[in-house]
Amino acid sequence: MMKNKKILVGVLFMSLLVLASCGPQKGASVESSNIENKSEKKEEHLDYKNQEEWDFEAGDAQSPINIETSTAVPMVDAGEITINYNDLVIDEVDNGHSIQIDDTGTAVINGRNFDLNQFHFHAKSEHTINSEYFPLEAHFVNKAQNGRLAVLAVLFKEGQANPAFETILQNIKKGEKATVSDPINTSQLFPTDFSYYHYLGSLTTPPLSENVEWYVMEHPVEVSKEQLKTFNTYYDGNNREIQPLNERIILKHENQ
């Protein structure tokens, strides 16, 4: 009888050991899942207040920059830009760090062909002119056949209401993708004078890849105070900090 009791106690003791060893593994699995979810959320919603934590590949040619107009060098190339963007866009999405409009069309930039992928907005502006910020900046992201990226940047100032921007505002669905049935006259989002500043930089969101061609329009486009206020209810402060120019040259193209 005593022998049987010893066997029973031994079995119970081993069972407790097995249960104890399983407990932490189960907890670790839950913790790992929580970390993954947090990581996914962080990627979807960029934290502009902690930009030093962003994933950064490498390099010293980052964007955006401050453009000192007095030091810009006149461009030798002809430099003309011709855009033919479609007014009937694919969709509009609140992607967690900007309002993005997926669109198609073409651009001829200094004699080279590009296709438009999308355009989106930052408030306040990412680039500055002589250290001056603007309340809004649009980026038209174009891609060449060889994969080269060229971004046309347009600065906006407070003034008259902009019909194209109003259509964009009316179609925002917070955190979602929306179908846009009304045309967006993209030409209304550009100045009539295509003079610009040009330099080589990077993407302004992770992974911040370099070798991106930037063309920052010299003349801002007007949007109304009310339109800016509406946009700021969705995004206000989704601009990357100004980056060092280092040894880069800023070129200036004067539209003829």
Write the layout of secondary structure elements.
Elements: H1 2-44, E1 66-67, E2 73-74, E3 81-85, E4 91-94, E5 99-102, E6 105-109, E7 112-122, E8 128-129, E9 136-143, E10 149-158, H2 163-170, E11 177-178, E12 196-202, E13 210-217, E14 221-223, H3 225-232, E15 251-253
Parallel strand pairs: 1-8, 2-15, 10-13, 10-14
Antiparallel strand pairs: 3-6, 4-5, 4-11, 5-7, 6-7, 7-9, 9-10, 12-13, 12-15
How would you sum up this structure, described in words?
It catalyses: hydrogencarbonate + H(+) = CO2 + H2O. Reversible hydration of carbon dioxide. Residues 25-46 are annotated as: Disordered. The protein has 256 residues and is of the alpha+beta class. The chain has a single domain, classed as Carbonic Anhydrase II (Roll), CATH 3.10.200.10. Helices cover 23% and strands 30% of the residues. The protein is built from three helices and 15 strands. It has helices at 2-44, 163-170, 225-232; strands at 66-67, 73-74, 81-85, 91-94, 99-102, 105-109, 112-122, 128-129, 136-143, 149-158, 177-178, 196-202, 210-217, 221-223, 251-253. The strands form two sheets. Strands 2, 3, 4, 5, 6, 7, 9, 10, 11, 12, 13, 14 and 15 form a 13-stranded mixed β-sheet that branches. It has a two-stranded parallel sheet with strand order 1-8. Strand 6 (105-109) and strand 7 form a beta hairpin. The model is unreliable at 1-43 (pLDDT under 50).
